[in-house]
Structures are given as C-alpha cells and as structure tokens.
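Reminder to self: tokens first, then the designed residues, so the page reads top to bottom the way the pipeline ran.
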C-alpha cells in the first residue's frame, strides 16, 4: 500500500478521495526510483488543490492524476531523470482555454507527434472555450478531453521553448531556453468565425516554429 499519502482536500467526498489515493499509488509505481512517496503525495495534494475549481467534479480524480503525472514527468525531465527525445514546447496564456490550447493541439497535429507540447494558464478557466473546441474539431483535432491547467514551475523548467500569449510576466525566466511572445486576439467571448481566424493565425505561426525546431 501507499501508506504515506497525505489526506487530499477535505472538500472532496470520501469516494473521490479514495480514487485520488489510488491514482497516487499508480504514480508511485510509474515513478519508482525517481521520486519518494512524500514527493508524489505532495504533487497529488497540490494538483488536487490547483484543480479544485474543475467544473465537472465527477472527473476530478482523472484530472488530478493526469495533471500530477504531467508535472512529475516535467520535473523528471528537468532533473535529467528522463531523457528528452523530442523538442519540448510550452504555450502559456491567461486562461489556458483558448489560444494556448489551440497552439498545443496544432503543434501535435502539424509535427505528427515529433514535438512534445504542453500548455498552461496564469489564471486558468474552468473549461475549454466551446468555440475553440468546435474550431479545432473542424481541422481534425479533438479537444474534448483537454482541460485548463495552471502554470507550474516544473513545466517551464522542462521546456526548450516557452511561448507566451498575453499573460504578461507570469512565466518565470530560466537561462538556456528560448522565449517568445505571440500577440494574438483572445477568443474569449468571440463567435466561431473570429475563432477560426485566430486558429489560422496560430496555425501559421506553429508551422514556422516547427520548421525551426525540426529542420529538414
């Protein structure tokens, strides 16, 4: 058993807390030899608290597991415990519900999975913008399983390229990384036609970025 897990947020019901405990046990097995039980427990607890605003509480255990796993993978990459075999790109906007999510989806699509990509928000929303989901679905990118994630230090440390989109100075600066700021319209509150234009603008930028990271 995973006996050293700290209690997760008391605002969660006992069934949900038990599901999150099970998720922690799975992470302990996956990252055995890299991180202690205490570290994994702390990441589970922090991730649960950071995602406490998730709109669909039924999915909280799944989201906590996915978010904590992504953070631990990034931490392992930053520490050299996991060798990075692909370029790593991080997109950061305010709500992680529109621009950064589209950019991440487009990098995965256009690079055919040859670039590992993450996204985050300085002030994440409760859910992805429905117009963004629709616009991305039109070009074959399914975003129904995505969710806004808060910006955390380890995902910045793991990235080779950090691209910000209207989030100011929220992103910490580390040496040896490439930083860019993309000035883009915010899709929040916009109709589908406007969101398509933003998507296409991001798409053009993404294809230039891929050409730089994966030269022929």
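Designed residues (216 positions):
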């Amino acid at each position: 058993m995973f006996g050293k897990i700290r209690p997760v947020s008391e605002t969660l019901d006992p069934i949900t807390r038990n599901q999150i405990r099970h998720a922690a046990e799975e992470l302990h097995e996956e990252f055995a030899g890299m991180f202690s039980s205490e570290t994994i427990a702390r990441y589970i607890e922090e991730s649960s608290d950071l995602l406490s605003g998730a709109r669909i509480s039924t999915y909280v255990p799944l989201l906590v597991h996915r978010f904590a796993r992504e953070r631990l993978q990034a931490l392992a990459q930053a520490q050299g415990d996991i060798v990075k075999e692909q370029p790593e790109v991080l997109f950061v906007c305010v709500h992680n519900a529109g621009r950064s999510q589209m950019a991440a989806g487009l990098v995965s699509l256009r690079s055919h999975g040859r670039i590992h990509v993450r996204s985050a928000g300085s002030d994440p929303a409760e859910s992805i913008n429905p117009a963004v989901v629709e616009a991305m679905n039109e070009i074959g990118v399914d975003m129904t399983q995505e969710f806004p994630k808060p910006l955390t230090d380890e995902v910045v440390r793991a990235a080779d390229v950090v691209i910000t989109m209207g989030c100011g100075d929220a992103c910490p600066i580390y040496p040896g990384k490439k930083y860019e700021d993309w000035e883009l319209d915010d899709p929040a509150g916009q109709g589908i036609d406007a969101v398509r234009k933003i998507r296409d603008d991001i798409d053009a930028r993404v294809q230039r970025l891929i050409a730089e990271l994966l030269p022929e």
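The radius of gyration is 17 Å.
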